[in-house]
Design a protein that fits this description.
Elements: H1 25-37, H2 44-67, H3 76-90, E1 94-95, E2 100-101, H4 105-114, H5 120-137, H6 145-153, H7 158-167, H8 177-202, H9 207-213, H10 215-235, H11 245-287, H12 289-308, H13 313-325, H14 335-338, H15 346-352, H16 355-366, H17 368-378, H18 400-415, H19 426-435, H20 443-455
Antiparallel strand pairs: 1-2
Helix pairs in contact: 2-6, 2-8, 3-4, 3-5, 4-10, 5-6, 7-8, 11-12, 12-13, 12-18, 12-20, 13-17, 13-18, 16-17, 18-19
Length: 460
């Protein structure tokens, strides 16, 4: 399936602690957005452009049917098998790194040598319409999205038909492999140009971006094309031999369903982790209202600084969780120490400094993602010069997320009223943070914090 850039999804990537593949956060968001879009109406401009694209596709398909002569007369059974196999393969969706790929190449190539060549684009469009109608009937696709599927995904059949039509209709032979390579290249060209042009005109998506996103889909088609050609060698002698492709399609169907189940499980697990994080945040707030409110404020600052530093989506997620839970270990510290109005004794200070270790221990018991977050929580009171606690880490030995949370935590504490002092004015707190750059705080983090606060003063 060749979907436009607005409907593409990203790949399942990365390996977890126990050797299991897991979804990158951007992948999770892209997959969810892509699935949700299948059920929504099209924007008016996009709908108009798709109607125009489908009219042009229909005119092109009719032109090839009328202008490309053919002596082939396949049986209705063979034609029905090809249409049914293509529709089945079209509904077999793999969510890959840059798109949704389906093994239609296994059926398209035999079509080019069994059906009248000029009728192939119309046949492909009909098979796609059948596959989409099934999804619409099952509530898996909005009816308007059928236009998107046709207008974006049926053009690929036109390219090879034109190349093979110019060469003259004939049976497949290995000696014609340069011709087949040219046909495949034409397939990719038509598959790219029509959707990319429409998206550039309507959505202002640059064609270069579309090409980069479709790379994996084209690679998969290129790998499946020789298998489709092997089936074509048999199908020209007995067109019903297309059934030879069905076991492979069925096997891929099993794999695609297992993949989807695993992706669904990853999404559910992510939501469970997020729910656990916010539940723990509520526990912290219930135990100590100041600590809970402070943690929420630190989250806002942390996300602003993380964005200013250009952190990736997954790192920003980690930063959000660490900022919310950096004080979770304080639920193990006696409230009389947490809320003491005066200066802490050395013994009390030693007790309160154990809260990062306690926080790590609590999150480690949850395990998984939160176990990893616990390691970052442990380092949130390390100092750039190595005089922090609990491990005396220095400089870039301290994880970047922990350095960000440390700086935002301190800045928010300076500007917040406590039982034993008033909060500093914003300007004084910024000056203090800058003064401590290179000793307590990472200078780059300080620079990003100052820039963020200057741009969004309400965040402080």
């Amino acid at each position: 399936m060749r979907e436009p850039i607005s409907c593409l999804v990203s790949t399942v990537a990365g390996v977890g602690d126990r050797g299991q593949a897991h979804l990158d956060l951007e992948v999770q968001q892209s997959i969810e957005e892509g699935r949700a879009r299948r059920l929504t109406e099209l924007a008016r401009d996009e709908l108009v452009s798709l109607v125009a694209s489908n009219v042009l596709l229909l005119a092109t398909a009719l032109a090839t049917a009328l202008l490309i002569p053919s002596s082939r007369t396949p049986s209705l059974l063979a034609a029905a098998l090809l249409v049914g196999a293509y529709a089945l393969a079209y509904r077999l969706e793999f969510e890959l790194s840059t798109g949704s790929a389906v093994p239609t190449q296994l059926v398209l190539v035999p079509m080019l040598f069994v059906l009248p060549l000029g009728l192939v684009p119309l046949t492909v469009a009909g098979a796609i319409a059948i596959a989409c109608a099934i999804d619409v009937a099952r509530g898996l696709m909005h009816p308007e999205r059928v236009l998107l599927q046709l207008g974006s995904n049926a053009w690929h059949a036109v390219g090879p038909v034109l190349v093979l039509g110019l060469a003259g209709e004939g049976a497949p032979t290995l000696s014609d492999w340069p011709l087949y390579v040219a046909a495949l290249a034409a397939q990719f060209a038509f598959d790219f140009v029509a959707p990319a042009a429409r998206e550039w005109l309507v959505l202002r998506v640059r064609p270069r971006m579309h090409l980069r996103q479709m790379g994996w889909v084209y690679l998969i088609d290129a790998c499946l094309a020789p298998v489709g050609l092997a089936i074509a060698f048999v199908a020209v002698e007995s067109p019903v031999a297309i059934v030879l492709a069905l076991p492979l399609i069925g096997l891929l169907l099993v794999f695609s369903r297992e993949r989807r189940v695993r992706i669904d499980s990853e999404l559910e697990l992510r939501d469970a982790y997020r729910g656990t994080v916010f539940l723990l945040g509520d526990v912290v707030e219930a135990d100590d209202a100041y600590t809970g409110a402070h943690s929420r404020d630190v989250v806002e600052l942390t996300l602003g600084v993380a964005e200013a530093l250009g952190l990736a989506t997954q790192e920003r997620r980690d930063a959000e969780f660490v900022a919310l839970l950096h004080d979770v270990g304080k639920v193990r510290i006696p409230n009389e120490i947490i809320n003491k109005p005066g200066k802490l004794t050395p013994e009390e200070r030693a007790i309160i400094e154990t809260h990062t270790i306690e926080g790590e221990r609590m999150l480690h018991r949850v395990g998984g993602l939160l176990g990893e977050i616990g390691k970052l929580v442990r380092s949130c009171h390390e100092r750039w010069d190595g005089t922090g606690y609990p491990d005396g880490l220095a400089g870039e030995e301290i994880p970047l997320v922990a350095r960000i949370v440390c700086c935002c935590d301190a800045f928010n504490a300076m500007t917040t009223d406590r039982s034993y002092r008033k909060g500093m004015p914003l300007e004084e707190a910024l000056a203090e943070v800058e003064r401590c750059a290179g000793t307590q705080f990472d200078p780059h983090v300080v620079e990003a914090l100052v820039a963020y606060v200057a741009r969004v003063p309400a965040a402080a």
